[in-house]
Amino acid sequence: MGTIVIGVLIGILYTVLNCSPGSKFRIGFTLCQRMIFGIIGSYLGIVIRIMLSIVFFASMSWLGGLGIVVMLSSWSKNYMNMDNTFSHSVNMTRRDFIAFFLFNVIQICFFKIRPEKMGPYVNGSCFITFIAILGVFGYELHKCYVLTGGPGPLWYESVDIPKSEVGWIWLQAVTVFYGAVSPNCTNMSDYSRFSRSSKQMYWGIVISVATTGVMIPMMGMVTASNTLASYGTAMWLPTDVCLRWLRENYSPMRRAAAFLCGFSFASSQMTYNVIANGFAGGMDLAGLFPKYINIFRGAVLTALISWVCQPWNFYNSASVFNSVMASFGVMMCPIMGIMVSDFNLVRKRRLRVSHLYSLKKDKDFWFTYGINWRAYLCFFAGTVPGLPGLAAVVNENVRIPTGLFHYFQNSTIFSFICPLILYYLICLVSPPQGAGEIDEYDYFDVFSEKELAELDMKSFQDGCDSEGVIPSDRVSLVDDEGNILSSIDDNKKSQVFVKSETV
Questions:
Q1: Measured between alpha carbons, how far is 64 from 317 in angstroms, rounded to an integer?
Q2: Are 374 and 47 contacting, i.e. CB atoms less than 8 angstroms apart?
Q3: Of 77, 144, 403, 415, whose CB is crowded by the most CB atoms within 10 A?
Q4: Which ranges of 76-162 does DSSP label H, i.e. alpha helix?
Q5: Rounded-to-10 torsion of CA 386, 387, 388, 393
Q6: Closest alpha carbon to 97 in 320, 321, 325, 307
Q7: Averaged pLDDT for residues 190-202
Q8: For the chain, what is the largest distance between any 2 Cα atoms, rounded to a whole number of angstroms?
């Protein structure tokens, strides 16, 4: 439990720090990558995040499908005991595939909802899921105490670890816990940009993550110990527990309980997956191909490509997927460290947002041929030392030096702190252009009067002429037809509209 608490605290810290660019300047993850890696160099961070969105979308979709399995099984005993016509080489049953397919179809319907409108669905699903988890936890704990008089054998199980390795094992446990959620912490700007109050957002993150991040894993471990004592098998998925109820006694009461739990688990997986992976992948793909892809198309594309990952192999075979998922922090923590260093230390929380949309060589984020070599150097400096450890996790036959494996064990901290400090030191020697500068006008018309005063920025109206148009000599982003421009040619220099909806 101690490692979970530490992992939660680190997760809260990293999440809050990565919210800053979005909450302060209303920019998402894609623009944050342009800020640190450069207009062209940003493809690195965006592509990495897209790949992780696809993998995680597949994984969460499979788990959500298991919730559908419980719901349909509570309706029909024939469905629960459906004959499997798939080959034994396929690591799923026909029953599970039907539920997985239905879950994906329903998810795609939710992609039509705008991200900022998902709040009620998220809050509702979180509430009913928390109630369902409490129900499963309470029932199994009571049953275990009646049978054995205690919480089960796992609660008392001890592990013999050499004293010299205790500290490193603790750090590795923290890395495993945090690594699996690091991709979602990295792109928090995609959602913090919609916040109405930074203070309320930060307190919401702290309270919600601290509460559920500790309670849910604790209840999961206790329930696994309970089920080991009650059924002879430790069950780590609540859907497995619900199916066990139905197999033991297909009574109306158990069917109703299983349905409500299955609905709760499926709904929470759906809202989480749509926001954390579907919309995230859609936003990143839209950032790469804005002319052809919007958030909806990108989210659908993420969902379709995720089938290639074959998520049924993640949980139904002896794969190393879970270990690899827990190691994603090796790649994501350096990006977070550089982002925090660049925005807070180098730029002093000030940047010219209009320059993030320009390919002109004299703009702040063109750097060197569109690439910020400082960020690339720090990214590889923070990532490369952790890759041998990742290889050792994937293949037990790989032998690496102890120092490199210790770096991997504590990559959550090392891969964040080292790039953060290194980037700041490099920028002291070779400062990037425009560090600490800010736009003269609110070109995107997104800030309130209070925010404009805090930023020392003039309003959008102050920058417009009598016709409500920003003259082209002040900014060059969007032409008369609403198309985003990398630069403006001589034939389109008359008027340039800059509206947040267009950009």
A1: 18
A2: no
A3: 415
A4: 77-80, 94-110, 119-148, 153-156
A5: 100
A6: 307
A7: 84
A8: 83
Looking up tokens 């891969």 gives 415
Q: Which residues pair with 470 in a beta bridge?
A: 496
Amino acid at 339: M
- The CA distances from residue 454 to 197, 438, 458, in Å, are 14, 12, 11
CA 264 – CA 23 distance, rounded (Å)? 31
389 touches 407 (CB < 8 A): yes
Q: Angle formed by the axes of helices 163-179 and 402-409, to 10°? A: 50
pLDDT band at residue 495 using 50, 70 and 90 as cut-offs: very low
SS3 content of the chain, % helix, strand, coil (to 5): 70, 0, 30
The 10 Å Cβ neighbour count of residue 413 is 18
Cα–chain center distance at 271: 13
CA 63 vs CA 49, 227, 259, 326: distances in Å: 21, 20, 16, 17
CA 283 to chain centre: 12
Residue located via tokens 């050499």: 162
CA 32 to chain CA centroid, nearest Å: 15
What type of residue is 124? G
Residue bearing tokens 């799923």: 92
pTM: 0.84
469 with 493: CB under 8 angstroms? no
- In the chain, CATH 1.10.4160.10 covers 18-325
* 186 phi, psi to nearest 5 deg: -65, -40
237 burial class (0-12, 13-18, 19+ CB within 10 angstroms)? Answer: middle
Domain 18-325 has CATH 3.40.50.300: no
pLDDT band at 221 (very low <50, low <70, confident <90, very high): confident
What CA–CA distance (Å, rounded) separates 294 from 157? 51
Residue 442 has what pLDDT? 83
53 burial type by CB count under 10 A (0-12 exposed, 13-18 middle, 19+ buried) = buried
